[in-house]
Amino acid sequence: MSLRALVHYDPRIWQLSIMGSLLCLGVVFRDFSLQPLQILLTFVAGILTQKFFLHTRQLHARGLLSALITCFGLCLLVRSSTLWVHPILASLAISSKFLLRIHNRHVFNPANLGVILGLTLFPETWVATGQWGSDLSTALWLIAGGFWVAGNAGRLDISAYFLLFYTTLFFAIRIGWYGYPLSVMLHQLQNGALLLFAFFMISDPMTIPLHPWARILHAFIVAVFAYVWQYGLYKNQSLIWALFFASLLVPLWNVLFTGPAYQWRSS
What we know:
Elements: H1 3-9, H2 11-29, H3 36-56, H4 64-77, E1 78-80, H5 85-99, E2 101-102, E3 105-106, H6 110-121, E4 125-127, H7 136-152, H8 156-177, H9 182-189, H10 192-200, H11 212-232, H12 238-247, H13 250-256
Helix pairs in contact: 1-2, 2-4, 2-7, 3-4, 3-5, 4-5, 4-6, 5-6, 6-12, 7-10, 8-9, 8-11, 11-12
């Protein structure tokens, strides 16, 4: 299959190109605290881990695109003062796809789990959500790319539901109840970290509920949890933790609301 045909065939190609451009632009123009060797080791560890499980379980060569997406996600979000944290997280995150499974589906979004493991296991590791800023150009690029990728994957609905619930909570409480100016919410909606999460993490077809109604419930739980975590408990990385805990409920939603299993259209 030609590259042009593959791009139209598998939405992960578009996701990789967008995430790759974000990483390159971030390193060049936003001074990401990320060394080239950290990036290289992340991808080497991720690909080797994927190939290891494919070989030991005698599976066909598949999932390499998803492994690359996980590596990009970790490079975009995680920062560490050491070289070895990124490759370890990549290996653990991709291993989770094969080891942490319920009803033949992996439980956690690998990049999300990798970030959580980095925050909890390695003291000199942090998440650089503020690196994206809130400028309009970055927001428009993420929205356009996110619409294209999630739309082609058939899971734009959960991105839209999450943004609807989260912004409604923000507007009703921060603007309506506390009286903050509307510009505060507009600033929030231009936050690159929020848009990256909405279009490239919570929309992962392999770890969200299968039924459309369950996806609405999942998006609602993530939005409420994230809002309470940040503005009620005053804790950091609300989106990352919200998705992590909400993912534990997805196997239950798939039992209560049955739906067809999602399959990528290529390996």
